[in-house]
Amino acid sequence: MDTGNSTVVTEFILLGLTQSQDAQILLFVLVSMFYLIILPGNVLIILTIRSDPRLNAPLYFFLGNLAFLDASYSFIVSPRMLVDFFSEKKVISYNCCITQLFFLHFLGVGEMFLLVVMAFDRYIAICRPLHYATVMSPRVCYALLLALWLGAFAHAIVQVALILNLPFCGPNQLDNFFCDVPQVIKLACTDTFVVELLMVSNNGLLTLLCFLGLLASYTVILYRVKGHSSEGKSKAISTCTTHIIIVFLMFGPAIFIYTRPFRVFTVDKVVALFHTVIFPLLNPVIYTLRNQEVKTSMIKLLRQHRVF
């Protein structure tokens, strides 16, 4: 037992998604299928964008980074969950739990900020086309990327710092299949009202403001394209619709989890499963199916390597 920082708990027991063995086998098969699609799908998007000079534009630069974030995000929860399906005792050390929590918020908020940057890119491209090359120059794109990574890192550090200051002296059972802020805070052997308030204000308010800002920006964009030509209007609406779908799929579960008091609801695990396992798969599928340029380049790349 480690008594540093008043912490005597050195490991947490994950209760998992379900205690039914049959259900666990079924979930293992389903999650494995999702996981085996997530990685190739995102890697294929990255390779396609990097290999085709026609996709050398800020939109595709950010799309490639989004695919990278999705692929990285899929490593945080899914591999361990697949192993735990066949583990009699699902144990995660205190340090591993904090590490998982850090990367969950680091990559999750990084993706959230990236969607904001992509909305800004679309606004400039559609509403200020004559200034697009200047505003969204390669230097600006890299600066925006660096800013979102630094912002996500700062956010994740705050989450970890608040958790590390809490004493854990038992019990040590997490009613989930991974470590996240709401479940971990509940196990602290102290009054956590202030910490919960800070967490909700930090996570929930940030998520909600980004969500509302994105909806407002895409509403403005869709309103502005009404005067464009039919071809330009169709392409802009298709791109914005794709982004809006991703926004709802990502922010819906996040708002449900982080903008309310840390109370337990029966659907929490289902929402968490969707947010951590299923959602990363949907990004490449939606973008590939709705973006003709990426789809054409992807088919060309696969044919070049004799995949089909």
Describe what is shown at a glance.
With 308 residues, this protein is mainly α. It has helices at residues 21-51, 58-84, 94-127, 132-135, 138-164, 181-186, 193-224, 230-258, 268-290, 292-304; strands at 11-14, 91-93, 173-174. The protein has a single domain (4-304), classed as Up-down Bundle (Rhopdopsin 7-helix transmembrane proteins).
Task: Write up what this structure looks like.
It contains 10 helices and 3 strands. It has 308 residues and is an all-alpha fold. The chain is globular and about 65 Å long. One of its GO terms (cellular component) is plasma membrane.
CATH C-level class is Mainly Alpha
Please count the helical segments: 10
Strand order of the largest sheet: 2-1-3
Beta fraction of the residues? under 5%
CATH homologous superfamily identity: Rhodopsin 7-helix transmembrane proteins
CATH-assigned fold name: Rhopdopsin 7-helix transmembrane proteins
Tally of individual domains: 1
> What percent of the residues sit in helical stretches (DSSP H or I)?
over 70%
Radius of gyration: 21 Å
Secondary-structure element series: EHHEHHHEHHHHH
Weakly predicted, low-confidence segments: 1-5
Report the structural category: mainly alpha
Q: Main beta sheet: strand number and arrangement? A: 3 strands, mixed
Ends: how far apart?
56 Å
Number of strands: 3
What is the mean predicted local confidence, pLDDT?
85
Taken from the alpha-carbon principal axes, the silhouette is: globular
| Level-2 CATH architecture | Up-down Bundle
